[in-house]
Amino acid sequence: MFSFIKKVFLRKHKTGADVDKLFNFMAMLTKQEQAVENYLYRYDRLHRKAQKHGDKVLIELYLSWEEFIVNNSAASGEKTSKEDIRKKISTQINIENLSQHFRLVFVEERVQLSYLYSILLIELAEYVHGNLGNKVLHNILREAGADTIFQNINITDGKVNLDSIHNLIKIHPAEYPANSIIQIYKAFISSFYNKIELSLGEEIVQGIFRKLYENFKNTYNTEFATLLLKITPEKVLGLNEWLSLLSKSELEKQVKEKTEELEDLNESLEARVRERTEELKKAYEELKELDKKKTEFISVAAHQIRTPVSGIKWIINMLLQEEVGSLSSDQKNFLQKAYTANERLLSIVNNLLDIDLINTDQAVYEFKEVDVFDLINKTIANLAAQANAKNIKIVWNKENKDTSNAGIIEADEKRFQSVLDNLIDNAIKYSSENDTVTIDTQRDEEDLTISIKDTGVGIPKDSETDIFKRFYRAPNAIRIHADGSGLGLFIAQNIIKRHNGIITFISDENKGSAFTISIPTTHTDEI
Ligand code: ADP
C-alpha cells in the first residue's frame, strides 16, 4: 500500500526513514484499505505528473490526501483534523529532511508563515541576483533587513538561506507571533519591490510579482496562496486580482467571520432593544401612575375649592346688593372687581371639574331644544364689559335672521353656552384693541354652523396640532395672557363631540383665527 507515492517521496527526500515514518503514520490514520486504494488509484495520474514536476505535485497530492484522511478518519473511530495530522507528523519525523516546499505543510502556523514567505523571498532574491547582480542583492538585504532577525540571512551565490530565521521563530513563540512575522516579511518584500521598480520600472516589477504569485497559487492549495496576500505590497495587485487570488475557503472564512460579527452585534443590539423596551415600559407605567395621581389630586383640589369660592360669590353678591348695608361707590367698585375675579376663579374650578368628568366619562348631558341664538346673545352680553374695555366690536351676521326658529337645536344648554363663552372670550382675549370679532351663523336642513372670527394674534403653525390638548397654551398666547388655563378648547371639543358635532379652526399667526362649530340640529345618541 502507498508504495508508488512512497517511491516518489523517497526519491525527493534525504532520508528514507522519515518518509517511512510519515507513511506509516498516514496508514495508521486511514484504516480503510479499500477506500485508500480507490483514492490512490484516482491519483495515479498525479503520480506520473509528480515525477515530472516534483515538489509541486507532491504537495498537491499530500494536501488532497490529507483532506481524504480528515474525511475518512471518522469512520476509523479516530476523528482527525488537518492540524492534528500535521502536528503529529511534525513531532514524529524530522521535517528538516523534507524538501523546503514540502515541509511547510507540517509546521505550526507561525513557522509555516515564515516558510511560506521565505519561498517568495528566495525566488525574488534569485531574480535580483540573476538580473541586477550580486551587489544590488546585498544592498537590498542589508537595507531591508532592518529587523534584527534578518541579520541571520545567509547568502551564497545568490542563494538566500533563511533556515536560521525559521528556527529563531520556532523557538521564540512569544517574540514572534503571527502578526509580527507578517509585518517583518511585508516590509522586506516591499523593499524588494521598490528596489526592482527603481531599476526596471513599474510594469516589469508588477509582472514579476504577479508571475511569482501565480506560480505560488498553482503550486500550493489556495489556502496557502491566500496567506501570501497578507505580505503583498498594495500596489502590486488590483482588487480583482486580490479577489481572484483569495481561496474559496478564505472567502468563506471571511464571510463566516463577518457573519459571526454581525450576529454578535445583532444579538447585543436585540438585547439592548429588549432592555430599553423594558425601561420604557416601566417609565410609561410610572408616568401613567403619576398622571392618574395628578388627575386625582386636581379633582380633589377642585372639589374642595369650589365650595368656599361659591360661598365667597354669594357673600360678595349680598354685599353688592347692599343687603347688609349701603356702600360708597368706591366700595362698590372694588367689590365688583372682587366679584369678577371670583367669577374667574369659579370658572377655572368648574373647568377642572369638567375635565374630571370627561376623564372618568361620567358627565351627564341633558339634551333638550335650545335656541342657540339666545345663547349667543347671552354670551355677547356677558362679555360686553370685556369687549368694551378693549374697544372691540362684536358683529353677528345671522344668515336666516327672519326665520324665528333658525337657532333651535337639541343641546345641553349649560354646556353649549360654555362653549360659546369660551370661543368668543378667546376671540376677544387674543385680539388687539379696536379689532372686530365676527360671528357667522348658518343653518341648513341638518346642521347649524357657527363660526367666530377674530383678527388677533393667531395660532403659530407649530402649535396647531396641540391646540385642543388639555393645558396646552401657545407661546404667543402666554405672552399676552399669562394666566390662561389651556382647558377651554379641550372641554369645548369634548362637549361638541358629545353633540355629535365637530369643531375646527383656521388661523394665521399675527392675522387672526376663525373657529367653526358644526352640529346636527337634532340629537341622536347612537353616533
Ligand atoms: P386659554 O385661552 O385659557 O389659554 P384655551 O383652551 O381656550 O385656553 O385655548 C388654548 C390655546 O389656544 C390658547 O392658549 C391659545 O394659544 C390658543 N387659542 C385659542 N383661541 C385662540 C384665538 N382666538 N386666537 C389665538 N389663539 C387662540
Explain this structure to me?
The protein contains 21 helices and 9 strands. By secondary structure, it is of the alpha+beta class. The strands form 3 sheets. Strands 4-6-7-9-8 form a 5-stranded mixed sheet, with helices on one face. Strands 1-2 form a two-stranded antiparallel ribbon. The protein is rod-shaped and about 135 Å long. The structure holds adenosine-5'-diphosphate. Adenosine-5'-diphosphate (ADP) binds next to helix 19 and helix 21.
What's the number of helices?
21
Instruction: Identify the strand order in the major beta sheet.
Output: 4-6-7-9-8
Question: Any idea what the shape is?
Answer: rod-shaped
Mind summarizing the main beta sheet? Answer: 5 strands, mixed
Spell the H/E element sequence.
Answer: HHHHHHHHHEEHHHHHHHEHHEEHEEHHEE
End-to-end CA span: 95 Å
Fraction of helical residues: 55-70%
Strand content: 5-15%
Q: Return the structural class.
A: alpha+beta
| Number of extended strands | 9
Bound molecule kinds, no repeats: adenosine-5'-diphosphate
pLDDT average, as an integer? 82
> Segments where pLDDT lies below 50 for 5+ residues?
none
Give me the Rg, rounded.
Answer: 48 Å
What attributes does this structure have?
527 residues, alpha+beta, two-stranded antiparallel ribbon, 21 helices, 63% helix, rod-shaped, binds adenosine-5'-diphosphate
Quick structural summary:
By secondary structure, the chain is of the alpha+beta class.
